[in-house]
Amino acid sequence: MANPTPLTTVKPGEQRTDTWSELLGRVGEAQDQHAFKQLFDHFAPLIKGFCLNNTNQSFGNDAAEEIVQEVMLKVWQKAPSYDPSKAAASTWIYTVMRNARIDMMRRNKRHQIDNSPIEVDDLWDEDSTTGPVVQFQRLRDEEVVQASFKILPNEQRQALTEVYMKGKSHSEVASETGLPLGTVKSRVRMGLQKLQAHIAGTAHAKVQA
Amino acid sequence: MNHTASGRSSSGRPTLSNTSSSPAIINHHPDANMLVEYASGSLPWGLSIAVSAHLQLCQHCQQQHAKLSALGGSCLNDAPKEAVNDDAFSRLLSNIDKASTPAEDKVIEHCQQTAAQTLVNAKRAGINAEHLPRVVKKLLPPQLRWQKISNALKSARLITGQGKHEVAFHKISKGGKVVEHDHRGLEVTLVLEGSFSDEEGIYCPGDFLVREPGQVHRPTASQNQDCLCLSVCEAPVKVTGLLGTLLNPFLSIQPA
Q1: What are the residue boundaries of the structural domains of chain B, listed by start?
Q2: Domain spanning B143-253 has what CATH number?
Q3: Are A96 and B74 in contact (CB under 8 A)?
Q4: Quick check: A65 and B89 CB within 8 A?
Q5: Whole-angstrom Cα distance, residue B156 to residue B170?
Q6: Could you tell me which residues come within 8 angstroms of residue A140 by beta carbon, excluding any fewer than 6 positions away?
Q7: Does the complex come out with an ipTM higher than 0.85?
Q8: What pTM value is reported for the model?
Q9: Domains in chain A and their CATH numbers?
Q10: How does residue B128 score in pLDDT terms, banded at 50, 70 and 90?
């Protein structure tokens, strides 16, 4: 791997990802409000759609609006720690949203969180999302992951979507679909293995080329 | 059992040349299903603590997790768009104004205090904090109360802000054998210091073990060092055998 693929090789279809990452980088570096507005216009409807789709939590319109506010506020506040070379904007915003959602659910459930020495951001921290791994590899994987997700067989993609989109645990998916837990688990696992194989195949092809 | 890496493709394992500061190779990892639940935020809080701590020690799983987060990003990209209220952006701007960020030097001061406090807490508890994962350091209370379970084993419960799982440190003294025990629920063990072995293998720092209900095992610490583990248990641990009957009351679950 003497010649890592330069960061600038972006295929037409992948351009989108890079634009948002660049905008998010500008928000972090210069608190660029214009860039932030563009990010908001793109991601706010996606975040709202994602949450409304989340039948597990039965979010109403107001709750979804609140999540949008919460997530985009965090995006503004945390943007200085965003590193475009390590993660795509959509991935980074996804993790901010995931954490906001967990936080909201914990507050609603009123667990004994008052005396908790740890917060959501301690458990799902940024370093575990963007660890000290070779950066070229990281960014390329991300593009490939997004592309390969679309070629998965239906039931595997569905199982993964239930888990991600709806934030359901495997056992919740099992009880709602009537499928045995083992089947849900193996669909998720097989879907991931296919993604992994596709990613490895693409990486190999790039090295050969 | 699929608590080893065998459930996943082995292609993601980093080569040694990539891992400048990496310690010994970790052989036991959370399985793909558990990592997915963690990455998507549906894994219970108690288990997420163990996975998070493992990730902070394991580059292999960090890479897996990064891919799973990218998958989440992909789902977000594909979500059906829902128009937000007209005033959403102006509300956001005023929310940003209201959320006065604490002065930076105050934050730094707070972090330094916390770091210093952690070292004091750990020393008092007889733990070498240096190699602990960040999340475990944060869980250390000012006064860790060790409870002796047998000659070889002591434990200390940790407060974690949930009631579903018992999260605790377990320390097996060097060469010590733990009473053979069974689990009524899932038990996750993360080795933090030293090592131990059971019928199925030997486990070193960073190794992440899952024991399902019904699996009886009898861990033994290595001869040269006490073994410190973080354990997360779903339900009361049932000790088997005659001695177990005597010890069981000490092991009743009291999530904190």
Answers
A1: 143-253
A2: 2.60.120.10
A3: no
A4: no
A5: 7
A6: A5, A203, A206
A7: no
A8: 0.81
A9: 1-129 (1.10.1740.10), 151-209 (1.10.10.10)
A10: confident
